Amino acid sequence: MTPAAAPAAKPAAVSAMSIGLVSCEACQLLSQPVSEEEPGYCRRCGEKLEYREAGSIQKTWALVMAAIICYIPANMLPVFTTTTLGEEEPDTILSGVAFLYTSGSWPLALIVLVASVMIPLGKLIALAYLLISVQRGSIANNRERTQLYRVVELIGRWSMLDVFVAAFTVALVQLAPLTSVAPGAGVLFFAAVVVLTMLAAETFDVRLIWDTAEPGRARHG
Amino acid sequence: MYARVDSSTYACPDCDLLQEVPRLARGSKARCGRCGHVLASRPSGSQDIPLALAVAAGICFVLANVMPLMDLSAVGRSNSTTIVNGAYQMWIEGEPLVGALIGFCAILAPGTYIVFMLTLLIAARKTPPPHWVGEMLRWTHHFEMWSMLEVMMLGILVALIKIAEVAAVETGIGMYAVFALIVLIPSILVTFDARDLWSRVVWIGDDEHPAREVAQPAAEAPR
Which one of A113, B114, B148, B169 is most buried, counting C-beta atoms within 10 A? Predict the structure, then answer.
């Protein structure tokens, strides 16, 4: 019963790709595909095998750019419009934050500000930085950059906050003709920013950060 | 065809470093030596704990969707809402895409996640587990990622505080069920031993090629 799998005995810092192995993204099973161009599917769970996400850099850039474009109308257009006795009052994300602040609940104002403004912006900046550093072949701060990526992945969902705020305000305040709330176009763009940045984080292959550290094996990028 | 190495060899999903992860003691974790990613973890309890949590989550999920989240009343009129209603109102008030997204993140994704986990945990009690377990386990991750009940909960609280200025708001049973789900869903994830289940999944060629007979890809590795 001596285990024949000997990778433990190899020298330090050997990536799976450099010896032709590919790790299944879903179940972590290591496979050695016959063809490196078409690795096929994981035998255990059926996930498509890829040494590195194909076209990761281009796809992530495209999603980041699309998110930046959507970010502008998301902040300019109203997320919802309150109609009180025939009088319409549009609310953008920032005016919502201002409202919360002036009405005395500054902790909530801070939460919404962080979730709706700082997180999406921070994510876009962080992803752009990661993309540029990978494209320039940076080998510095690999560990920190990987941690940055994990933070981006982890906090991304929280920017959905304002979409939920809008939805439940709309659902609850339906007391026409007294007062009612209708969603504005801003919420669509805002939701688009959230989804696009989440997809961008998914598409970005963190392993690219580490590939540059291994001389001569930067393929499948 | 395919060759594979021993199942204790892992390539870190974040940096692709090959390393051995030994059988872990209960309640311990293994981190990647290079980037710190948690490669594997073994929960301290038995597989019955996540199952019990998943059953509880199933019940709470039904309650969260059936019972009103809150009631609002102003000048003699009242209105209550459920999660579905939140998505539906968005849809009919002119933002169908956003409505669909809310429906997906607040109902479909968490619901599917709970149903899949329940099915998996029951199926995992058989030896060997049914052949579709691998495929299903693979999908649970995607639904887990898009399940945003905790974000929804905070969103509702913010909305409530805004509305409280103009109307009296009362929280309903649905809200408490959502709160329970926010605790239960991550608890399932933490107590569930995914590595153990993966290691028991039977796949094509598994029986004929036990790990120790497999070719060593390391042998012909270029320097």
Answer: B114
Q: Give the residue numbers spanning the domain of B135.
A: 46-201
pLDDT at site A221: 42
Probe site for chain B from A27, A34, A162, A202 (most B CB atoms < 10 A) = A27
Which of A 170-199 lie inside 8 A of B, CB atoms?
170-175, 178-179, 182-183, 185, 187-188, 191, 195
Beta-carbon separation of A160 and B151 below 8 A: yes
Q: Any idea which of A7-11, A16-20, A197-201 has the lowest mean pLDDT?
A: A7-11
Average pLDDT, chain B: 83
Q: Which of B15, B141, B158 sits opposite A207 (nearest CB)?
A: B15
Token pair for B138: 């693979």
For chain B, how many structural domains are there in total?
Answer: 1
The answer to whether residue B40 sits within a structural domain is no
Fold classified for A56-211: Butyryl-CoA Dehydrogenase, subunit A; domain 3 (1.20.140)
Q: Whose CA is closest to B57, among B118, B107, B103, B145? A: B118
Where does chain A show beta strands of DSSP type E?
22-23, 30-31, 80-84, 87-91, 174-175, 179-183
Q: How far apart are CA A113 and CA A97, in angstroms?
A: 6
- Answer yes or no: is pLDDT of A146 > 90: yes
Q: Do A165 and B152 count as a contact with CB atoms less than 8 A apart? A: no
- Is B11 part of a structural domain of the chain? no
Q: Is A95 on the interface with B (CB under 8 A)?
A: no
- At A46 the pLDDT is 83
pLDDT digits 0-9 by tens, A84-136: 877 888 888 888 888 888 887 788 889 889 998 899 999 999 999 999 999 99
Structure tokens at B164: 């409280």
Residue B213 domain-assigned (yes or no) = no
Kindly report which listed range (A8-12, A73-77, B113-117, B141-145) carries the lowest average pLDDT score.
A8-12
Long-range CB pairs of A134-141, under 8 A, 24+ apart, other chains included: A134/A57, A134/A208, A134/A209, A134/A212, A135/A57, A137/A212, A137/A218, A138/A212, A139/A212, A139/A213
Q: Provide the ipTM.
A: 0.83
Residue B9 lies in a domain: no
Extract the tokens encoding A198: 């989440």
What are the residue ranges spanned by the domains of chain A? Answer: 1-51, 56-211
Preferred mutation among B38, B83, B89 to probe A, highest tally of A CBs within 10 A: B89
Encoded tokens for B25: 């003691």
Q: Using CB atoms, which residue from A4, A15, A17 is nearest to B212?
A: A4
Residue corresponding to tokens 């002119």? B94
